[in-house]
Every structure is written in structure tokens, then in C-alpha cells.
């Protein structure tokens, strides 16, 4: 059909590519990062160690991990002049709009690390992106709620730093709850990379022209924003809020099954997983832990989510269509319980996925065979014809 990508398998690029970073088996519900299963990484590792695995291919030694974490920690602040970029937005701007703009603008501030032909500058750009995304996401949030920016603190771990930059205010002392920090870190890990999804393919296509990494990551953020992709966690929670009570679930199940109704169950289905999404399993366990800790296990949204999942999985239509909860189904519930507005769900997904985009970028940009991505098409428009002057039309 029109627009179907056909591609020349002779070049490393974007319509299809070789990669050694992430493997997905959609039928088995398997997700491996450099061969390590996602459930083991989520349980035994932590986000910055997973970043190291994605970037360099192996689990780090203690010394390598300490050095890597030190390099990331040393780049968590953004150029002071960048603060003015936030102030150009209206206060009601969506934080994703701010992130697209501010990350793209990094090209103008960190041009000394954008010579993509220099492996060392590729390394510096990678570290800067991973280090600064939490700061930018937190500042986008603070700006939209009218609170002062909080600077990063280098004595805190990655997830704790982000939570503090989002929820601390100068007027009060703020202590990060370690269980919430662990849940936040696990959300980062579960979203870190996912093979050639739409936003990663966007980053690869943009990068294949030789554009600088910050502009290419901004393109990935823009693509992730869509409700069929990273915007699904926000759309899912808003759907659960709209359903409101379990007795309204049958109405929404019927709509999702109605061919003439464009409504989709947000948080269900996947382009690749035709069985369960292994990340959703871990996320569901995290949701129970966080809601139990916060004493909100009877959270009405969670009740609707659990009843909706039960109803959908019991319905032959969804089993036949192989539609199961995906990573976005439970992440929104956890983030809402932590106190984030739905508008911050996709920025947190973007923050988490930065390491995946950067790892895939580094893998591709380092390939001497790289050619610019140029997907082809099946043309189905008008055949050759002559121009007709306007007086003869
Ligand atoms: C992410 O690619 C990635 O890796 C993405 C991601 C990542 O980590 O980067 O995993 C993150 O984007 C997860 C997906 C988040 N999106 C949502 O939760 C939005 C709701 N889901 C749908 O929009 C949909 O499931 C997609 C876009 C995710 C997949 O769409 P497809 O490729 O059409 O799914 P499919 O081919 O398996 O669909 C089979 C059938 C189709 O009906 P028929 O044409 O066969 O009649 O099921 C229908 C679909 O229309 N269907 C749904 C549905 N998803 C698919 N019907 C109701 N509700 C849904 N959610």
C-alpha cells in the first residue's frame, strides 16, 4: 500500500538496520539489552548501570561504574543562559513542547561536542544528554507550575535527584523517599531502549544526514509525543479518569471493539508484542508496591485499571487480536500516585529513552558504511500529463 517502506538492504540506515543493542521476541514476550533480560535488569541493576550496558555493551566493573556515574553527575547542570529559553514559553505550555525546544537548543550551547566524526566528542555529547535530561524535564515541570527551578545535587543518585528537582521547594526541606526513588529508577530502566520503535527510527533517520545529536534527540522527543507511542501513558491515565468507575468499563470495551469507532484502549496492544509486554509485568509489580507504600491501594484509578485489565483479558476479542497491557498501562498509575500531572508522563518517558536514542545513534554514526536514510515508496499518484493553461481549464 502507498507509503510502504521498501529499502536497499545494502546500507546501514533507518528503514532497517543491524544492531547489537536490544533484542525483542514479540511472541515470547522477551526483551534483552545486550543479552540481559529486562526483568533481571529491573530487579538487580539500576538505571545508570543499564545506561552503561546499553552504551558500552557489557556490565561495568565497580571502577568502571564509579567512573561513569561520576562523569554523568559532573554534567547534570545546564548552561545558565538556557534558563531564559524556558521563560519564552507560556506557563500553560505542554512540558513536551518545552523539551523539544530546549533540547534542540542544546545544539547552540554544546557545539564543542557536536563534531560527530570525533569519537571523543560523540562520547561527551552522549554523557551530556543523559546527564542533563532530568534537569531539563524537571525545569519544564517547575516552569509550568510557576515554581522556582531546583538545581541538581551531586550527592544524590539519578532518580532521587530528579524527584527532588521536581518536588522540592526552597521554603521547605525535602527528603526523597527511597522506595519512590527505587520505583522511579525502575521506570527509567523499563523505558531505556526498545529496538527500532518510531522515535528511535526518527533519531536514526535524522542522524543519518550528519545532523548534530542534540537536534536529532529533539526529533525523537517530538515523535515520542504522539498518543500511539510515548504519549500513550498520558492518554491511558486520562482514559482511566474518563471511565471513572468500574461499572462504565463495558461501554469502553464495546467502543474499543467497534470497527467504526476510532477509540483505542490506551495502554493496550503493541506493534511487536503479540503476547504480554515483559515491561508491563514488572511495572504492575512496581505499581502495587508504590500504591501500597502511599496507602492508596484503593486508588479509584487503580481499581478501574485492574478491572479494565481483567475485563479486556477475559474478552475473546482482545485475546484473538493479541492485545495485552503494554508498558504504558501501569507507568501512568505509578507516576500519578507519585504526584506527577499527566502532562509529565511523556517527558519522563523521553528522559528514560534518551540513553536508548543515544546508544542507537552512536552505533549507527560510527558505521563507516553509513549512508543517509532514504526510505522509498510505492507511487500511486497521477501518471505523466501536460500542464493546462488556466484559460483552458
Ligand atoms: C509504545 O514500538 C515500540 O517499541 C513502542 C514502545 C517503546 O517502548 O518504544 O513499546 C512504546 O509506544 C507502546 C504502545 C503505546 N500505545 C498505546 O498504548 C496506544 C494504544 N495502542 C494502539 O494504538 C496500538 O496497539 C498500537 C499503535 C500500539 C499498535 O497498533 P497496531 O500495529 O495496529 O496493532 P495490531 O496490528 O496488533 O492490531 C491488531 C488489531 C487491529 O485491528 P484489525 O485491523 O485487525 O481489525 O487490534 C486493533 C487494531 O486496530 N487494536 C486495538 C488496539 N490496538 C490494536 N483495538 C483496540 N484497542 C487497542 N489498543
How would you characterize the overall build of this protein?
- The active site is at residues 270, 328.
- It catalyses: oxaloacetate + acetyl-CoA + H2O = citrate + CoA + H(+).
- Belongs to the citrate synthase family.
- The protein has helices at 38-44, 47-56, 62-73, 83-86, 95-109, 119-144, 158-167, 178-190, 198-207, 213-224, 232-243, 249-257, 278-293, 300-314, 316-320, 327-338, 345-365; strands at residues 22-25, 30-33, 36-37.
- The model is unreliable at 1-14 (pLDDT under 50).
- The radius of gyration is 22 Å and the shape is globular.
- The chain is mostly helical and 393 residues long.
- S-citryldethia Coenzyme A (SDX) binds at residues 194, 197, 228-229, 232, 256, 264-271, 321, 323, 326-328.
- Protein structure class: mainly alpha
Strand content: under 5%
Poorly predicted tracts of residues: 1-14
How many DSSP-defined strands? 3
- Name the bound molecules: s-citryldethia Coenzyme A
The amount of helix comes to: 40-55%
What is the rounded distance between the termini? 32 Å
| Number of helices, where a helix is a run of at least 4 consecutive DSSP H or I residues | 17
* Oligomer designation: single chain
Rg measurement, Å? 22 Å
Overall spatial form: globular
Strand order of the largest sheet: 1-2-3
